Structure formats: C-alpha cells, structure tokens
C-alpha cells in the first residue's frame, strides 16, 4: 500500500469527536501533536487544501502515520495536548522557553509546622504555595512573616510525648523573642496553628484578617494597661499595612481572577499572566513561546493559559482575556471592555510588551543573527513582500533652490547600514529643481550600472517621497525591465504614509513598529548622506567663486591653488614668493594684492 493510500485509509477512520491527534514520520518519530473539536475535519484539513506556510507544507510531506485519542470535551483535549507536548517534545510544536525550576513557600506537615522556601516538592502532606517567579518575592514574604509571627526554625520532632518528657530545651531564638518555645511546652499547639492560619492568608494575599486580629489584640492590651505590648502589636500592623500599600492594588471587589494577554511577532509569542487575589496582584509572569508552524495568537494564548494555570496551580474560576478562547469547562471567561477590569487587561498587555522588549535587547547582543532574521520576517509581513528584504536601498534628493542638485543612495543589509555600498549622484540631465526628474535619473543610473556589472539587486527599494517620486522611480524600473522584480515603496514625511505602486491608499504602520523604524532609519540616513554631499559641493563652489572673482584667475588656476594650499585661508596668508612658485609672478601679484589691500 502506497503512503498516500495508507493516509487516506487512516483519515477515513477518524471520528467526528473532540480529541488529540499525533503525526509520526516514516521512522516512527513524533512530528506534531494537536487538538481538535472535530478530529476528522481538523486532520483532513492538512491534506485537502494547499498550505499557506512553508513549514506546514514540509510537515505534511513528512507525515507517514496518524494516531488519535478521543476525549469527552474540547477543554479535555486542551489539557491532554499540553501534557503530551511536554512529554513527547514534538519537533513542530511550539517551544516553551522557560522550563527552569521556581521557588515555593512550604508549610511543613508537622505538629508545629516550619515555614521556609524550597525548590523541591516532596509529597509528604506539606503545603506548597507558589511557584514564585522571583526569589526576591519569596524572601520579602518570609521576612514579613518572620517579623509578625514567632515561629520555630529547628527541625526537632516536637511530638507530645517528647515535649512532656522534657527532651528539649529552648534555644537562643527563644531568648531573642523569635520563638515562643513550643519545644518546652511554652506555646500550645492551638496558638501555633492560629498563627499558621494567618500566615496562609498572608501568602494568599489576604492581609485583612491578620490586620483585624492584630487591631483587636492591640485594643485588648491597651484596655489592660499593657501599653508596651500594645505598641509592639501596633508595629506589626504598620509592617502589614506598609506591605499592603506596596503591592499593586486593584479594585477590592475583584477577587481570585486570572488575567491573560498576548503580544506576538513573526517568531515568538509572549503570554502574560496576572493573578489577582483579594483586590491585589499577587503574581505576574510572562511565558515566551517559540512558534513552529505560524500559529495564531488564539492558539498560543490557549496553550499559554493551560500551561500557566497548571504550573502555578491556579484554581481561579474566572479569567479575563482580550478575545475568546476555549478554556476548562468550569472556568468563566470575561472579555473586559471598560473600567477597572479593562485597566487590568491593559496592565497585563503592557507587562508582556515590556518583557518582549527586554528579551529583544538581550537577543540583539547575544544572538544578532536571530535578531536580524526576526526583523526581516516582520518587514516581509508588514510590507506584504514576497521575500525577506535582506538588501534594501533608499534614495533621497537634495537641492537648495535648484543649486547643486545631488542625490544619495544608502544601502542596508540585514537591517544594518552597509556604508561601503553608499553612493552619491550629481544630477546631470535635469535643469533646475525638479525632484521627480532627478529621482528618475538616479534610479535609472543606479540599476543600469548594477545590471551591467552583474551585481546583486536589492529585494526592496525605498523612495523618500510620496506618490510623485514613486511614479518617477517606477518609470526607470520599467525601462530597465525590473518592474515587478524588485519591490518598491515610497514614504511621505508628513504622516509617515507608505505608498505602493498602483495603490492610491497609503499604508500606516504602527508608530512603534520595528518595520517603520527601519524605514525611518533608512530615510534619515539617506537624507544625512545626501545633505553632507550637497554641503561639500556648495562650499567647494563658494571657495572656487571667491578665487575666480580675482582678475586674471580662472577655474584652472583656482583649482591649482586649492590643490597646493588646501584652503582659501592659507592662500590669503601665503607670501608673494610662495604664490609665485605656484602660479607664476603675474598672477601671484594680482592674488597677493587682492588679499593684502
């Protein structure tokens, strides 16, 4: 049986139920794991239509066999897919970038529980809170707990029999006031566990109960005239309230909610997770996901939600999202549009955006090739190009009231200036200030030469100007037979409109877009390079004219003098003998007399 026949048989056997499918190659290696509401429809779609993206076409060519698992609901498929991806690590599935171990806060399963941080989870009945993405957060919480509640730090087995037998003696912590001495029975089990319950609430972000308990204690001590003890309790209330003020507080009515947003580019997605408890944000974490098959934002967000809720053991029954995706069945999805809820969603998106910017800065330093590839892929997508613009050329005209008309061509390769390839042009065939005709001339000269010398052509040409300059450049490409072979755009300065050939409606890129930044950088560099050349030409013209105005000194004599003395200032300061040696006695006297009246 041929491969295609075998796949047809396997496809026909698929059910119309929710489930998870797995693609394998001829060697039995796992290629891809996916989920579907309807297995037959979803898997068949890979084979009965032409795939838009190259990576997906390569995947489909490699598929030799298909396995599937039927599950009751789509949300079950979501969870199963996530677990199988982590277990099997298929080549074409997205890659989660941060699989490091995170710290937890442990309340040990003991008669008098210890509270400490750990990176290992031991299934012995102990309680674990977290994981936390920052050890600094863990230390802050533990310092807060330690300043409020005297807890034991020793690892003794404080069973009732051993305490009654007087096996242990209090240590230095007791004398310093850091522990109330449960090892000698100075603190009852109930008192200790009341403290542990308060600590649980603090870790969960609920500080209100602890503050109320301490306030009642403070009043009781004050009524009994024990003002020193009341002051110590007041200090604890201040510590708690100060900690609460520092945490990001949102609407107190918003309780036990998870917030998820996504920012993505051509190669990666960044899913931010905010966990809100008792009106305060108690956790923020951004997950970086590497795309493999040009996944949509919906697919990446769905994967991110499943992964992050599992990783951080979230039991929240409500999630705030920017757009609808399938989540677990018993979880309510809210799509905020206004008010406090919308502001929280915007905060989450801002966190994702900042995380992406930080990562890109790091990548630019550590992996410049990946940075260039990402920028090129983004430009290809934003400017609707057929290939990545690895080689870009930008043209700009410079003239002041028609004098000394020049043009500049700057070249960027892999998103960076290639200064050795920059070129200046003196306009030869155009009289007066005609930007359109000048652009037509320089574009023709540039690509006529590249064709004659069989040099590589750019993938993108950028014209500094609107529709007029773009049309002029197109005429030259038409004459050279290059129209349609090289992508060309014009950028107008006023609102940064980007014009395409034969399209009257301009494209407006996001002002923060990296593609727009590259185009602006090209335009500014072309302008700078052209203006520099224009100034040099003007100043040389001005210097020449000052010498030519002297009776008996022509263009040739002026050039000879500048070649010998390098500047007009030196010519003015030169002695008659030195001038005579350069241009002869007759001319030297006239020049000397002009500058030494």
From TrEMBL:
GO terms for cellular component: cytoplasm; excinuclease repair complex. It comes from the Bacteria. Residues 263-477 form the UvrC family homology region profile domain. Residues 208-243 form the UVR domain. The keyword Electron transport does not apply. GO terms for biological process: nucleotide-excision repair; SOS response. Keywords: Coiled coil, Cytoplasm, DNA damage, DNA excision, DNA repair, Excision nuclease, SOS response. Residues 16-94 form the GIY-YIG domain. It is found in: Cytoplasm. Interacts with UvrB in an incision complex. The UvrABC repair system catalyzes the recognition and processing of DNA lesions. UvrC both incises the 5' and 3' sides of the lesion. The N-terminal half is responsible for the 3' incision and the C-terminal half is responsible for the 5' incision. Belongs to the UvrC family. This is UvrABC system protein C. The lineage of its organism: Bacteria, Pseudomonadati, Bacteroidota, Flavobacteriia, Flavobacteriales. The gene is uvrC.
